[in-house]
Specification:
mainly alpha; binds sodium ion; 3-stranded parallel sheet; binds adenosine-5'-diphosphate; 330 residues; two-stranded parallel sheet; nucleotide-binding
């Protein structure tokens, strides 16, 4: 394929994806299938950097894959696989570990945040080298671009640095990837606290729209979203973060531009906006949930599909790893 290649991954630990995962990431993955040679991984190796129950992890990995399929990834148009099914990721990661400085890894802010939260005694070495495994995940596919959120930018910089280091030490081997800041990716905020982003770990249950929640739960959460004491439906992140978040969600799912929505809701109260946002969200999540249930109802077929994805991924991963190992002197 002469299309630019992209690689992206999502952790299986989330259970249900939330609206931010879809509108900020997964929806762009679906679009990139049409223009790019796209590799998408459920990154279960990354998941065990914190303790996981084995049966729970296996189920969560299937559920993540089912949700990616339910959101529109098509195994005929992209390579969808589970990271642990491609052992070359860890083989290449060792080389990358040896090319990454201890201090360099120590500067990763996501590690500092995560380890501070659980304390040094409960921080695994795996959590420390997580960004280096991510370096291998990306470089092993010779990815040209990596669609990422702002929170991952530092890891992409590390990936570029390590790729350049390898190339200058051993000769040109790896494509140096660029971050792909996707058009149309929306940042979604917590419904109860629209100053923070909607997040599995930081949001309260009422602030988080899980894509697999029953429609009634979703509608109720949206109708209870925090707004402000005014009445005017207008997009203004500074003074109306709650209303702006609802307009963003509506626009992203309905395709109606925000100014048009402002016009539509002129002279109407927040309740009318919330009711319509609830309808728009439930209108999308209902068929999504049915598709996910369909994939989850046949785990053997899902496993076969993921095995085919891993086979496709391994063709590239094995070739890159063989070349890198040869260059290193193995
Ligand atoms: P969480 O923050 O809930 O743990 P992850 O960190 O697992 O979510 O993110 C998975 C993907 O979803 C990433 O690409 C991330 O940038 C994106 N994402 C997560 N939360 C949001 C949000 N509130 N708005 C937009 N994108 C988001
Ligand atoms: Na996160």
């Amino acid at each position: 394929s002469d299309r630019p290649r992209v690689l992206s991954g999502i952790q299986p630990t989330a259970g249900s994806f939330h609206l931010g995962n879809y509108l900020g990431a997964v929806r762009q993955w679906v679009a990139l299938q049409e223009t790019h040679d796209a590799f998408y991984a459920v990154v279960d190796l990354h998941a065990i950097t914190v303790p996981q129950d084995p049966a729970g992890l296996r189920e969560a990995t299937r559920l993540a894959a089912a949700q990616l399929l339910g959101a529109g990834l098509d195994p005929e148009r992209c390579t969808l696989f589970v990271q642990s099914h491609v052992p070359e990721h860890t083989q290449l990661a060792w080389v990358m570990n040896c090319l990454t400085g201890f201090g360099e890894a120590g500067r990763m802010t996501q590690f500092k945040d995560k380890s501070a939260k659980v304390g040094a005694e409960h921080t695994s070495v795996g959590l420390f080298t997580y960004p280096v495994l991510q370096v291998a995940d990306i470089l092993i596919y010779q990815a040209d671009e990596v669609p990422v959120g702002e929170d991952q930018r530092q890891h992409i910089e590390l990936t570029r640095d390590v790729a350049e280091r390898f190339n200058s030490r051993y000769g040109k081997t790896f494509t140096v990837p660029a971050p792909h800041i996707t058009k149309g990716a929306a940042k979604i905020y917590d419904l109860q606290d629209p100053q923070i982003k909607m997040s599995k770990s930081a949001s309260s249950p009422k602030g988080l729209v899980n894509l697999l929640d029953p429609p009634k739960t979703t509608a109720k959460k949206i109708r209870s979203a925090v707004t402000d004491t005014g009445t005017e439906v207008r997009f203004d992140r500074e003074t109306k973060p709650g209303v702006s978040n609802l307009l963003t969600i509506h626009s992203a799912l309905s395709g109606i531009a925000v100014p048009e929505l402002e016009e539509k809701f002129a002279g109407r109260l927040y309740g009318a906006l919330k009711a319509e946002v609830a309808d728009v969200v439930v209108g999308w999540t209902t068929p999504f949930r049915e598709r996910v249930e369909h994939y989850m109802s046949d785990p053997a077929e899902l496993d076969r599909l993921l095995a085919r994805g891993a086979e496709k991924a391994r063709v590239v991963a094995a070739a890159t790893t063989a070349e890198a190992y040869d260059k290193v002197g193995f």
